[in-house]
């Protein structure tokens, strides 16, 4: 009898501890948010991470990551799983580098970019979020729903616990299912994380998410001002959404798509400065901006764009390029 009572006590105690589990709070947005997307950082190298730590940028969005049909999370840099069978299996040096990012650094916030399929690609990320968030559905090999046992919750929990992520960023460019993304915001809230949005089109879709989400959880939008969003004007989004959350324009640098010339809305530092000035005039409350993406800066230098095409910019090193971009964004906001 005593053994039975002890077993019941410890079972109940374990359940209570699990039910009351709390997660460390996530970093809030900086007052002046200078953000950079980090494609090409998995697993990366120490010198690049040192550059980022001392770059003057304060938010790093690690990218890009894709959910696969079996519940694994893949890195777009290596096309290998970093989460497999519900556990972290990614590169240990990457974990070390990311965990060191906030130490004696300008970086104060780390976000994870969850990228979806483009046109013509097979289903991934947002197809599966749509299919799995509803606990009444049955999907072989997947625990559906958004509670602490679910596949989606576990992916986000691992990103928080292993990488110290403060937020995940929603870059949905194909599925546009708002109920499932609203549900992802509830996962973020349970984990004491934030969620940000990364639109380039479809005002109504993003507006629906914002209106149905806690503004303390979904705390920012990164507006794509390149490629499919090359013609985006920030005032149009401000007027359409009328949201409490800040909207940060994202600029794509020359060097993207392996070319020094203008392509799909890529811009030189001088061109970014000009567009940013117009955005600030139309949206005086703008207090941040972002650069897409670290790999493009490296390509710019590697291709010798400063010499090959002087109109593209003058940076001869990645450090110089980061410095120029930081100064331009800081002055513009």
Could you walk me through the main structural features you see in this protein, from its secondary elements to its overall organization?
The protein is an alpha/beta fold and 333 residues long. It has a single domain, classed as Glycosidases (TIM Barrel). It is 38% helix and 17% strand. The protein has twelve helices and eleven strands. Strands 1-2-6-7-8-9-10-11 form an eight-stranded parallel barrel, surrounded by five helices. Helix 9 packs parallel to helix 12 (318-332). 44% of the residues are buried. Mean pLDDT is 94; it is low at 1-19.
Give the helices and strands, then pairings.
Blueprint: H1 2-19, E1 33-37, H2 46-53, E2 59-67, E3 73-75, E4 80-84, E5 87-88, H3 92-100, E6 109-115, H4 125-132, H5 151-163, E7 167-171, H6 178-190, E8 194-197, H7 203-211, E9 218-224, H8 234-241, E10 247-252, H9 269-282, E11 288-292, H10 294-302, H11 305-308, H12 318-332
Parallel strand pairs: 1-2, 1-11, 2-6, 6-7, 7-8, 8-9, 9-10, 10-11
Antiparallel strand pairs: 2-3, 3-4, 4-5
């Amino acid at each position: 009898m005593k053994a039975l009572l002890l077993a019941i006590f410890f079972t109940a105690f374990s359940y209570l501890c699990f039910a009351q589990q709390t997660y460390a709070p996530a970093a809030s947005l900086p007052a002046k948010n200078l953000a950079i997307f980090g494609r090409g950082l998995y697993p990366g190298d120490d010198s690049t991470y040192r550059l980022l730590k001392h770059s003057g940028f304060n938010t790093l969005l690690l990218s890009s990551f894709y959910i696969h049909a079996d519940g694994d999370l893949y890195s777009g840099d290596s096309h290998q799983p970093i989460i497999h069978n519900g556990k972290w299996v990614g590169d240990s040096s990457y974990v070390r580098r990311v965990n060191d990012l906030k130490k004696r650094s300008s970086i104060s916030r780390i976000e994870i970019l969850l990228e979806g399929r483009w046109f013509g690609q097979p289903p991934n990320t947002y197809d599966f979020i749509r299919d799995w968030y509803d606990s009444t559905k049955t999907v072989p090999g997947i625990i559906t729903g958004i509670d602490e046992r679910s596949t989606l919750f576990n992916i986000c929990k691992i990103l928080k616990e292993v990488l110290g992520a403060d937020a995940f960023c929603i870059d949905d460019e194909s599925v546009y299912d708002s109920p499932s993304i609203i549900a992802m915001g509830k996962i973020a809230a349970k984990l004491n994380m934030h969620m940000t949005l990364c639109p380039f089109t479809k005002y109504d879709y993003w507006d629906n998410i914002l209106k149905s989400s806690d503004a303390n959880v979904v705390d920012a939008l990164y507006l794509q001002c390149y490629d499919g969003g090359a013609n985006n004007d920030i005032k149009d989004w401000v007027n359409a959404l009328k949201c409490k959350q800040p909207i940060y324009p994202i600029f794509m640098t020359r060097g993207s798509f392996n070319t020094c010339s203008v392509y799909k809305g890529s811009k030189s530092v001088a061109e970014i400065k000009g567009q940013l000035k117009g955005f600030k005039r139309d949206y005086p409350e703008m207090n941040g901006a972002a650069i897409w993406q670290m790999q493009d800066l490296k390509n710019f230098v590697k291709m010798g764009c400063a010499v090959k095409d002087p109109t593209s910019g003058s940076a001869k090193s990645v450090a110089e390029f980061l410095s120029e971009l930081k100064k331009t964004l800081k002055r513009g906001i």
